[in-house]
Predict the 3D structure of the following.
Amino acid sequence: MVHIHDHDAEPYRFSINDHLDLLIEVLKRLDGRSLGAAACVCRKWCAIARNDSLWEHLCFRHVSPPPVGVRPVVSALGGYRRLYMVCVRPVLSRLKRRRIGGESEVVRRVWSQHEVELSLSLFCVEYYERLLVGGGRVAGDSPASSSLKFLCMPVNV
Amino acid sequence: MGPYDSSISPAAGSSNSSSSACSSSTKPPPPDQMDHLLAGAGYKVRSNDLNQVAERLQHLETVMVKSSPVDISELVNDAVYYNPTDLVSWVDSLLTELNTNVTVPEPVPVNTDLSDLHQFPSDMNVYGSNHAPEMHGEFSQQAVTPLEEDISIRLVHVLMTCAEAVQRGDLPLASLLIDDLQALLGRVNSGCGIGKVGSFFVDALSQRVVNSPQNGVVQVELSAYENEILYHHYYEACPYLKFAHFTANQAILEAFDGQDCVHVIDFNLMQGLQWPALIQALALRPGGQPLLRLTGIGPPSNDGRDSLREIGLKLAELARSVNVRFAFRGVAASRLDDVKPWMLQVSPKEAVAVNSIMQLHKLLGPGGPHGPPIDLVLDWIRDLNPRILMVVEQESNHNQPEFLDRFTESLYYYSTMFDSLDACTAQPEKSLSELYIQREICNVVCCEGSARVERHEPLVRWRGRLTSAGFAPLHLGSNAFKQARMLLTLFSAEGYSVEENEGCLTLGWHSRSLIAASAWQSIPKPSPATTGG
C-alpha cells in the first residue's frame, strides 16, 4: 500500500516571500505609513519596500493625469521615497486638513497638476538647500529640510 | 479759588483777563512735571493735576450741555479769555463765567500710576489722528486686558508725538518722550504684538534723537555672509519671499514658452534660493529644455570668498543633476546703478528676463550728476528688450518727504508684518527674521539721504513709474494665482490672503497687503528714423 495520506494531512504552506510579485502588488496598494511599517518586518521586505518604484506609485497613483518625464528629475533630487517623506505627505495632510477641518479620516483625493508642480518645486528647493549646507554656506542647520519646516509645524486648528 | 491755585498760572500773554480766575503765579510748570503727551499738543499741564483737570472738564461739559443758549451766549460772543495752553485756568474761568458753583473736589491722593489715564474723558482726543482707530484694530489681535489695551494705545500715541517732535526739531521734548516710552514698554508684554514692534521703533527713534536727528545715522554694514543668514531665516519664517519667488518663476516660465535660449538677470542673487524651482520647472517643460543662462548681481564680498561664484557652482550642480544646460555669470556691484549693460553680456538671440525682488526701491534716493538712479536703470533695462521684467516690492509708502508720515505708515506696516510673524514658532528662524525686519525699520526711521535705501513705494506709484519709463503691464495668469493660494494654505497661520489687482498679485495679512508682484514687458523704443522731420 502506498501511504500518501501524510502528504494530504500536511497543511499547504503558503509563504508570501516565495511570491515576491504578489508581495509587490500588495505593497503597491498600501498607504505611506503602512509601507514604512512593512519595511521594518524583515530584511527582504525592507529591500523590497525601499524600492523607489513603489514610492513613485504611492506618490502619483492619485494624480490625474499622471506626470510625464518626472522620474529622472525626482531620482536626481533624491528619489521618490524622500519626495514622499519630505513633501508629499506633509502637503497632502496639510491640504486635507484644510478641506475637512480637522477630521482624521484618510481621504482618497486626486491631486491636481498644480499640487504636483508645487510639491516638486519645494522638493527641488530642499535639495538645493542640502547642497548649500554641504558646502557650508548655511550656518549649521540640521540636515532636516529647513525650507520645509513650515510644513511640519502644527496647524492652528 | 481751588486749593491748587498756587500751581496754576496763566501763560504769558493773557492780558485781557477778567481777574476773578487769575492766579498770581506766573511760572509755567517745570518741564519734567509737565505731561509730555499734552505738551506735544501744545497744552501745559502738570502730570499730577491731570485727574483734577479731567474732572473739571467733565463738569464744564455737563454745565454747557445743560445750559440754555442764553446763558452761554457770553462765551460765544467773547474772544478767548485766556491762552488755552494754560488749560487749568481756562477751564476755571469758563466755569466761573457760567456762574456755577465750582465744587472743588477733595484733593485725591496724587496717583502717578498711568493706569488712571483710562478715566480721562474721551473727548480729550487732542490728536484727532486718523491712524489711531485703524491701529487699535490691529493691536487688539491678542487677548489683552483692558488695561493692557490702554497702555498699548498710549504707547502708540506717545510714539506719534515723539515722531512729531523729532520732525519739528524739538529734541528736549523728544528725549523726555523716549523716557516715557521706555517706561511704557516695561509695562507691556514685549514678547508679541505692539510691545515687540514698539520696542524696535522706540530703539530706532532714540538712535535718531541721540545721534543726528536731521541728517540721520548711517547703519552699520553687515557682511555679505551675515546678510545672507538673515535673509535665509526670513525666507523660512514667513511666506513673503517664497510668494515672491514662486510667482516670479511662474511668470518667467510662461514668458519663456517656446524659447530655446533663455537668459535670466537676477538683481539680488543672495543664495540663489529662487532658481532651483525654475531650473526644475524648465527640466520638466513639455516642449523640451532650453539653454538657461543666469546672471546674478550681488555685492562684492569683502571676506576673500567669491560668494557669487560659489552660488553659481551650486546652481550648476543642480542643473547638471536634472539635465538642464546651464551657464552662470556673476556681476559684483554694491549698487544697482553701478551696473552697466555691457557687464551682462546679453546676446540678441536670447529671451531675457529681468528679476527684481525688492531692489528697485533702493534706487529712489537722491540722484547723482546723471539724474535719478531709477530712471537710469529703467532705461538700460529697457535697452535690453526683456520679454519680462518681474518687479516685487513692499506694498507701502515709506518714501514720503515728511518724517511723520513715513513713521506713521511704517508703524502700521511693520506691526502687521510682526502680527503675521507671531504665528511662526520655529527658532532661530523667528528671531533672525525679526532682526532682518528690524534693520529695515531702522533704515526707514533713522536714516536720511543716500543712506536711506528702504524707500518703499506702493504698487500704484510703481505702475505710474514703469508705464512712463516705457513698459507695458503683463497680466500674471491664473496659474500664478492658484499656485500662490496653494502655497499659502501650506503655511499654518490662517491670516494670509492673496489678491489679484489688475493683473498683479498681492500677498497680505488679513486685510492689509504687504507685498505686491507685477510683471512688465518693454515697449521697443521708436527708432529715430520714424520721427517726422
Observations:
- The first helix of chain B runs from residue 36 to 41.
- Confidence is low (pLDDT under 50) at residues 1-26, 101-142 of chain B.
- Residues 163 and 404 of chain B are 6 Å apart (CA to CA).
- Chain B has 17 helices and nine strands.
